[in-house]
């Protein structure tokens, strides 16, 4: 491998891996502020990323147990404080005031108070929950409650009202759209993974800096891929130097991803199914065209985004898990879900489906009942995670039932020792699977059941 | 890799999961990523490993990253039995 000595270790004192890790830590903390859009509620573009940071610190404190070298902890804590005070400091320097936050950051004194508050909370959690893995359930419950509050519209609106009252703004004007917390949905998955691994006794010991880098990792902040703490840590601790091979490969992934997302997906968006054209479309052929465009657009958009995230991480020697593997060419729905948003499906398997299946199995439920319960509730939860609406629930149920039916069919075929299907049958399977998924997208793309039904009727010429 | 771990695993997968006792499973055959074992039966396989070998496979370990072949699963089991 051709090593390019980009930073030939600062005066020979630090290795490239140490410099890279320090850089990733600072970038990841800064990144959550830079990426957060402004909101109608004052200073939320500062406070929501700060809350994300606090959540990560709290989960670290709850999971790190007795492994805290005081010196490292002070260094890492000071690192966070310096970054936050640096952000607050920009408010006093006019040309830099919106460099890291979209609107003016709070003053330095307020940020100092917030740091003291956050430190005290972390210390309390570390004392209380750190030595007791069983108590991580409490933190998990709090995270779930927060996720629910952010996904259920009336609750989000109430939360917006509370935040408005705090900032001295009109509570009557509160709307669920006020709280757009970028990255929280995915932060939730990474934090829960850490809590569950800790409860299972499998979480490796991580310094505060390592954990913050994992939880807030800039390239994956917006929408994953969802990495596991143990895997991420392996890369972070491995020897590293910037090298041409990784940079070229990372650069190639970024270029491919950017093409998919900003050229293909954006072009397809011009005629992909949406709330407006669903009302206008006449005739089944046109309706299918809109739906096909939507199916391809969502794939290229999310797949392209994932490529970019994976590519950027690769340049820094972090190999994020793959998220897509030719999903639309798979011969059945089970394999589709093994290759679409892979890191999300794996998360749900590890922390929901497997424990549920295990519990029901040991209670002696019959296999088909377990499979139906497991598939249906998993897919319903994945649907509702996108937002608590009827359409996302129907989309989830559609896939859950589809997976159950395919599972029963596969079981039936296996019991009769049916041979491997020939190529033509596999191609037909892929076409059928694609159309099943595409019909699911009708519910995903459109906001309410009435409009979705209308679209389905148009698709079938009714 | 020791045959006394691979054989019972191969038999269990052929008889109980694939319902086809004649099906021979190669030690390096992909089990999970190929879709041969679905997510439900993977949990069953985990329970079988627990009963038979007294080795606990965690819910987060039942995936193709942790093991995808009989060889890899047997290596995992023998490493934990020690």
Q: How would you explain this protein's 3D organization?
A:
The complex is a heterodimer of chains A (462) and B (82). With 462 residues, chain A is mainly α. Chain A folds into three domains: 15-237, no CATH class; 242-322, no CATH class; 325-462, no CATH class. Chain A has 18 helices and no strands. Chain A has helices at 16-35, 44-63, 70-89, 108-128, 136-151, 153-166, 184-199, 208-216, 229-237, 244-268, 275-280, 284-315, 333-337, 342-362, 367-385, 390-415, 423-445, 449-459. The radius of gyration of chain A is 24 Å and the shape is globular. The termini of chain A are far apart. The mean pLDDT of chain A is 90. With 82 residues, chain B is mainly alpha-helical. Chain B has a single domain (3-81), classed as Non-ribosomal Peptide Synthetase Peptidyl Carrier Protein, Chain A. In chain B, helix 1 (3-17) crosses helix 2. The two termini of chain B are 15 Å apart. The relative contact order of chain B is 0.21. The model of chain B has no long low-confidence stretch (mean pLDDT 87). The A-B interface holds A 193, 196-197, 200, 202, 228, 231, 321, 332, 334-335, 338, 346, 349-351, 353-355, 357-358, 361-362, 367, 370-371, 374, 407, 410-411, 414-415, 417 and B 18-20, 22-23, 33, 35, 38-40, 42-44, 46-47, 58-60, 62-63, 65.
């Amino acid at each position: 491998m051709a090593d390019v000595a980009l930073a030939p270790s600062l005066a020979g004192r630090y290795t490239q891996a140490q410099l890279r890790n320090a850089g990733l830590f600072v970038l990841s903390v800064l990144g959550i502020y830079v990426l957060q859009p402004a909101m109608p509620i004052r200073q939320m573009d500062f406070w929501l990323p700060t809350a994300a940071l606090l959540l990560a610190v709290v989960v670290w404190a709850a999971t790190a147990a007795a492994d805290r070298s005081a010196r490292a902890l002070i260094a890492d804590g000071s690192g966070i404080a310096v970054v936050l005070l640096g952000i607050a400091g920009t408010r006093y320097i006019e040309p830099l005031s919106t460099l890291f936050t979209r609107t003016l950051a709070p003053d330095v004194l307020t940020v100092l108070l917030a740091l003291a508050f956050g430190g005290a909370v972390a210390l309390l959690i570390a004392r209380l929950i750190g030595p007791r893995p069983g108590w991580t359930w409490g933190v998990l419950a709090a995270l779930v409650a927060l996720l629910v509050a952010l996904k259920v519209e009336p609750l989000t609106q109430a939360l917006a009202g509370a935040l408005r009252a705090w900032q001295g703004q009109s509570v009557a004007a509160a709307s669920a759209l006020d709280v757009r917390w970028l990255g929280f949905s995915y932060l939730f998955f990474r934090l829960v993974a850490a809590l569950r691994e800790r409860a299972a006794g499998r979480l490796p010991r991580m310094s505060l800096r390592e954990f913050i880098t994992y939880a807030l990792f800039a390239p994956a902040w917006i929408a994953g891929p969802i990495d596991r703490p143990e895997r991420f840590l392996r890369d972070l601790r491995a020897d590293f130097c910037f090298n041409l091979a990784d940079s070229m490969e990372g650069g190639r992934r970024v270029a491919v991803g950017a093409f998919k997302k900003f050229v293909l997906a954006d072009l397809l968006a011009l005629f992909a199914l949406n709330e407006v054209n669903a009302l206008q479309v006449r005739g089944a052929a046109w309706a299918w065209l809109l739906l096909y465009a939507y199916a391809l657009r969502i794939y290229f958009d999310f797949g392209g985004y994932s490529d970019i995230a994976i590519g950027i991480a690769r340049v820094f020697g972090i190999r994020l898990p793959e998220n897509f593997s030719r999903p639309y060419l798979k011969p059945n729905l089970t394999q589709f879900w093994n290759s679409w948003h892979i890191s999300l499906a794996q998360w749900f398997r590890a922390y929901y489906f497997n424990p549920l299946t295990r519990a029901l199995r040991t209670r002696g439920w019959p296999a088909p009942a377990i499979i139906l319960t497991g598939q249906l509730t998993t897919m319903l939860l994945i649907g509702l995670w996108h937002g608590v609406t009827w359409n996302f629930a129907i989309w989830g149920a559609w896939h859950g039932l589809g997976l159950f039916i395919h599972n029963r069919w596969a079981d039936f075929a296996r019991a009769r020792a049916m041979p491997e299907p020939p190529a033509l049958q596999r191609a037909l399977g892929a076409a059928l699977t694609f159309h099943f998924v595409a019909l699911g997208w009708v519910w995903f793309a459109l906001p309410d059941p009435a409009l979705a039904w209308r679209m389905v009727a148009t698709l079938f010429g009714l | 890799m020791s045959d006394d771990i691979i054989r019972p695993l191969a038999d269990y997968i052929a008889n109980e999961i694939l319902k086809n006792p004649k099906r021979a499973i190669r030690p390096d055959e992909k089990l999970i990523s190929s879709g041969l074992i679905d997510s439900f039966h993977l949990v069953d396989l985990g329970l079988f490993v627990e009963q038979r070998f007294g080795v606990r496979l965690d819910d987060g370990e039942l995936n193709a990253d942790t093991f995808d072949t009989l060889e890899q699963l047997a290596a995992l089991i023998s490493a934990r039995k020690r």
